[in-house]
Specification:
Layout (H helix, E strand, L loop, with lengths): L3 E2 L6 H7 L1 E4 L5 H17 L11 E5 L6 E6 L7 H7 L2 H11 L3 E9 L25 E6 L10 E3 L30 E2 L7 E5 L4 E3 L10 E8 L7 H18 L9
Parallel strand pairs: 1-2
Antiparallel strand pairs: 2-9, 3-4, 4-5, 5-11, 6-9, 6-11, 7-8, 7-10
Length: about 260
């Protein structure tokens, strides 16, 4: 089965059938190089933002050392103009409009650095049952570095999106048991800088730890169809931060803030 589309006009049917597509070489090497330079700058110039109480930041366990390691800026487009340019690029929006059959609206944006040693994410779906959460929600991956098995590429499971939400729709994050999918159907998203992968919010996916000596930086962007709530970016982050504050408080982490 060919999950890779090279022409925008051929995207809609494979996306509808499989729950994901890959477009090779959507961005030029020079554009990704600019994004890579910006990512390095963000790590250096915004080091003061990297605090466990800052709601912008995500931390993961290093599987080699056990250390809590900085991994993600979420959101990133407000401090990264190159990332914002990629997110709103007419070529990408054209891909999404072909998939949706209508314009797309940016819903969420984050830059996952995934340095060497950082753990992966368990099997899950990105869609979550919050009030008014768009069912057209999809995720776009834009790799700054080559993504492969060694550095923990994303692995998707085609076809399962047709079943909708596979966990209780209670507004909580749930991982899926391994038995939810047939591992023989797994498709690792081997991506080169400039490629773009798009998958449904209902497509089960996971990732392994980065056991290489290389980073696996990827811009993760999420969108919704225009008719499915319009521009919800600001509202989403207000709701997301309230949810995070409540979750952290359950584990004794108080005094959180956003900067």
């Amino acid at each position: 089965m060919n999950h890779v589309a090279s022409a925008i006009g051929s995207l809609r049917e494979p996306y509808a059938s499989n729950g994901f597509v890959v477009v090779r070489g959507l961005y030029a090497p020079s554009e990704i190089e600019q994004a890579s330079v910006e990512a390095e700058r963000l790590l250096a110039e915004y080091d003061h933002l990297k605090h466990v109480l800052n709601l912008r930041c995500r931390w993961r366990t290093n599987v080699f050392t056990g250390d809590c390691t900085f991994e993600t800026f979420d959101p990133v487009c407000d401090i990264g103009p190159v990332a914002l340019r990629l997110a709103l690029d007419p070529r990408l929006l054209g891909v999404l409009e072909e998939i949706y059959g209508e314009p797309a609206c940016l819903f969420k944006d984050k830059l996952i650095f995934k340095p060497p040693g950082v753990e992966g994410y368990g099997l899950h779906q990105d869609w979550i049952a919050w009030k008014n959460f768009p069912r057209s929600f999809l995720t776009v991956l834009i790799p700054y570095d080559a993504a492969d098995r060694d550095n923990g590429c994303t692995v998707v499971y085609p076809g399962y999106h047709l079943g909708g939400c596979l966990t209780p729709e209670d507004g909580e994050y749930h991982e899926l048991p391994a038995s939810s999918v047939d591992e023989s159907r797994a498709v690792p998203l081997f991506l080169a800088p400039g490629d773009v992968a798009v998958f449904s919010g209902f497509t089960p996916h996971r990732s392994d730890p980065n056991v290489s000596s290389r980073w696996r930086r990827q811009l993760y962007l999420s969108y919704n169809a225009l008719s499915d709530g319009g521009d919800q970016h600001k509202r989403h982050y207000a709701e997301f931060h309230r949810w995070l504050e409540q979750k952290y408080a359950q584990y004794g982490k108080t005094g959180t803030y956003f900067a």
